[in-house]
Amino acid sequence: MLIHTSHQPAARQSIRAVGALLLVLVMALPSLPGMRGVAHYLPLHMALETLAIVVAALTFGVVWSAKHEQLPRNALLLGCAFLGVGLLDFGHMLSYNGMPDFITPNSTEKGIHFWLAARLLSALTFLAVAWLPWSTSASRPCAWSLLAMVLLLVAALYGLFFLAPHLLPETFVPGQGLTAFKIGFEYALMALYLAAAALLLRHMRRQRSFNTSGLFAAACTMALSEFFFTRYTGVTDTYNTVGHIYKALAYAFLYRAIFVETVQRPYTLLRASQQQLQATLDALPDPMLELDDEGRYVDVRAGHAGSLAAPASLLLGKTLQEALPAEAADITLAALEEARQQGFSRGRVLPLRVPDGQRWFELSVARKPPQPGHGQHFVVISRDITQRLQSEEAMRKLSQAVAQSPLPIVITDLQGRIEYVNDAFTRSSEYTAAEVLGKNPNVLQSGKTPAATYQGMWARLQQGKSWQGDLINRSKSGREYTESVLIYPVRNAEGEVTHYLAHKEDVTERKLAAARIQQLSHHDQLTGLPNRTMLGKHFDYAIRQSTALAVLWIDLDRFKDINDSLGHNVGDLLLLEVSQRLRSDLPDDATLSRHSGDDFVALLPHTSQDEAAKLCTGLLDLLAQPVQVAGQEMFVTASIGIAISPDDGQQLDSLLKNAETAMYRVKEEGRNSYRFFTPEMQAHSSRMLALGNALKQALPRGELYLEYQPQVSLHDDCIIGAEALLRWNHPQWGMVSPAEFIPLAEANGLIVPIGEWVLQTALRQLRAWLDSGLPMMTMAVNLSAVQFGQPGLTDMVSQLLQQTGVPPEGLELELTEAVAMKTPEVAAQKMQELSQRGIRLSIDDFGTGYSSLSYLKRFHINQLKIDQSFVRDIGTDPDDQAIATAIVQIAHSLGMTTIAEGVETAEQLDYLRAQGCDQVQGYHFSRPLPPDHFEAFVRTNLQARQQAPAHAVQAEVQAPPAGTAA
Fold first, then answer.
1. Which parts of 453-513 are beta strand (E)?
2. Which of 215, 379, 653, 795 lies most in the core, judged by the most C-beta atoms within 10 Å?
3. Most confident among 229-243, 443-457, 560-574, 753-767 (mean pLDDT)
4. How many CA atoms lie within 13 A of 203 on its CB side?
5. Same fold for the domain at 284-390 and the one at 408-512?
6. Superfamily holding 284-390
């Protein structure tokens, strides 16, 4: 238990003393003779009781003799109560067996009754003293009342014991010892003493208010004493004797506590006060002099010798005329004369050159009460006011600075009437000083500052506190402006508030800038929609109202192609139009936020699954309508993922993540739709993450390989080339679709080393086929946007061609439309470099993006590839037929060839042949093949062409070697 530092020394002594007594009890208890009587017990008992009675009387006497108004009430209670305890102990002593009869015949029972009464009064007093708060509210009437109550109680107990002892329970049976009542009563007394000791111990954790440690030792010792009185069987045995000794020790502890507190401590405090007063006088920075009636130095005290005209030893005994210059001496003598007549003199100032230099001193003179046999003496305090005079000069400068401050300053009285304004105020308010002096500052009110602001301002000012806030004011001409105002009370020397001073600053521009910053930090700059930070605040509010809400993640389809082909300005205009459409179709309580790029998030409170589905259908229909942007008509679709709280998450981050996951599933399934989040989607996302990590080791572990799909000329059905297709066979997941891992490789940057490996492997394979006797063919290799954007691409390709010995015309690089149109100027430059080195170039998936024919004719393109989406229904769909025909015609008009991919039926082949398409590839001829199967397939084609008429070659070509169609 922690003990307050003010109790620690005495507490340690008390605890050691109690510990020693307890140790004596524990060690001596087994060896005490017990029932054996003590020789000459009666005089010993009388001596011990007399000692206890004397100590109790001394305790009362010490307390009663102290000034009651300066004594804690509990101390007075303790003193009066122990007077009663002493009187009861006196009755116990006189009632003891062997003593002359005391009023009535003495007996063991009579003595025990007085004993128990004294002990109970003592225990209750200790408990009350420990429980009640210590205060100095004791008064003389209170003291007499308390004393009377104690004496009446003692008198009543005496009467009871003398006149009606038969009403009391039996406490002792001769020959048998103590009764159960007597033993139980002693244990109850022990409990009361220990409870008081515990409370006193708790008092020792607080600031010292009385000698709690001494009382604690007395209470503990009394408890130990009572223990012995539970064990004796004869009134003269050893237990009884030791118990009386412990009781006497407890009284001694009590008396010491009272004596220390009421006698020793006041003298200690007096000595400390005298020492503090002496230290204060020694610490005074001002010289304090004592002069007699003639102006002679009687005593000199100076905290700093440099403030005296001469050392103190030289001043003593000299007169003012002898020690000071004439002017200073005359001023001091005049102050002494004024003090002689009025009793004091203040405010006279004299200049004096001292060791510290030229200083100014203000004299305070007081006339001392005359002492018998001595003349009149004066106490003079010479205060150095040089600093104050300098401060006054500084204050004068400060006053000028306030008047010339660029910030408005206003001083009013306590009723709010203006007493001072500076020039800056007149400039900002456009009022002259004469127009506002004597008026209330409310002449500036615009009516737009809330009334609560003024109420709060006056509430603080009337409490003597400062106030700071913003006020919207109006100038004389009607201009509204916002001022940051600091108003604080001005106090006089006595600490009383006399005026209010206001500092003002026009913060109108700053407020506008802050509002703009707030807008930018919480809203999207382009659309003005809330950003993710503001969305989080809306979510916190909505989730407190109801846990049922829906989160929509809306992502525009192929928006990157629009940015790449038409530019970011057109993309921004499209995003602005889309945001307006979405906002107009969402409920009023919904929050629409733009996260980044073409991602929008809608927060829909109180929305179920059915309601969310219905809303998404409407949004998709609205977005599908044509958009006019920069004079161009566009068609936009979107993919929407939906997460519902609380099933799909209760935190915004988890709901956003799940809604985004559902959106990506829509992308994978064809776009322009919506999906609700399901745990299976989470598993799919986990698979994508695992695939991304595994892909990092796929190339070094040899898990990647190439297959080759034949490319057939429609002029003579000859195999003229092959497209290298990347495959991944993972040891755990088996064959992984390129549609899964190619986007992952592009996203994490692995496509660059993988693409270089693909190019190198394909060229080496072509070289091997040529070396084995196959005719010259073209190896088509796809380049991703990331690869095409790499610096040094042309040099890298040329180096691989040189290493493998493949002629440049044997390589055809396939680029997507988006890659070519992303930065047309840069793309055209890079294509020119590749073309100049003899490398063929092809545009893959032509017609699926946003082509610009003006740029296309500038590219050095050899071939356009018709996407399989236009080939799939080319036999029945007029639109696909028109697109395919147009691509062929555009290519031929620009001097390019065409190749169609995904040809699977004879009908598709016949239509393409009829429109003049140059080449085809697809399952109608062959699936992608391993290198050796591809070589066998080419040789079969050559043999068929050599042995059969031209119209029969096609049938032979369609039959790949056994086992190659996997």
1. 467-474, 480-491, 497-506
2. 215
3. 753-767
4. 23
5. yes
6. PAS domain (3.30.450.20)
Nearest to 125 by CA among 144, 101, 98, 153: 153
Average pLDDT over residues 277-283: 63
Q: Is the pLDDT of residue 347 over 50?
A: yes
Give the model's pLDDT for residue 885: 92
Pick the CATH number of 408-512 from 3.30.450.20, 3.30.43.10, 3.40.710.10, 3.40.50.970: 3.30.450.20
Q: Are 379 and 474 in contact (CB under 8 A)?
A: no
Task: Give the whole-angstrom CA distance, residue 22 versus residue 249.
Answer: 13
Enter the pTM of the model. Answer: 0.40
Length of the chain: 966
Q: How far is CA 655 from CA 443, 588, 647, in A?
A: 54, 21, 9
Does position 125 have pLDDT exceeding 60, yes or no? yes
**Helix, coil or strand: residue 155:** helix
pLDDT tier at 966 (50, 70, 90 boundaries)? very low
The whole-angstrom separation of Cα 402 and Cα 408 is 9
Fold adopted by 39-268: Rhopdopsin 7-helix transmembrane proteins (1.20.1070)
Contact 664, 683 (CB under 8 A): no
CB contact set of 391 (below 8 Å; sequence gap of 6+): none
Confidence of residue 90 (pLDDT cuts 50, 70, 90): confident
Tokens of 379: 């106490």
Dihedrals φ, ψ of 510, to 5°?
A: -65, -40
CA distances from 363 to 215, 333, 390 (A): 53, 11, 18
The tokens for 937 are 């397939």
CA distance 804 to 138: 113
Stated as kind and residue range, the H or E segment containing 25 is helix 8-28
Q: Is 583 exposed, middle or buried (0-12, 13-18, 19+ CB in 10 A)?
A: middle
Residue pLDDT, tens place only, 377-400: 888 887 778 777 777 777 777 767
| Phi, psi dihedral angles at 473 (to 5 degrees) | -110, 170
| pLDDT for the residue numbered 875 | 84
Mean pLDDT of 587-601: 88
The CB density around residue 786, as the number of other CB atoms within 10 Å, is: 16
What whole-number percentage of the chain has pLDDT above 90?
16
By the 10 Å C-beta count (0-12 exposed, 13-18 middle, 19+ buried), 865 is classed as buried
Architecture of domain 524-677 in this structure: 2-Layer Sandwich (3.30)
Instruction: Quickly list H helices, 525-678.
Output: 532-545, 559-566, 568-585, 609-624, 652-668
d(CA 262, CA 147): 18
Of 724, 721, 722, the residue nearest 706 (C-alpha):
724
Q: What is the pLDDT of residues 413-433, one digit of tens each?
A: 888 899 888 888 888 888 988
* pLDDT at res. 800: 93
Q: Give SS3 for 859.
A: coil
Supply the DSSP symbol for 210: S
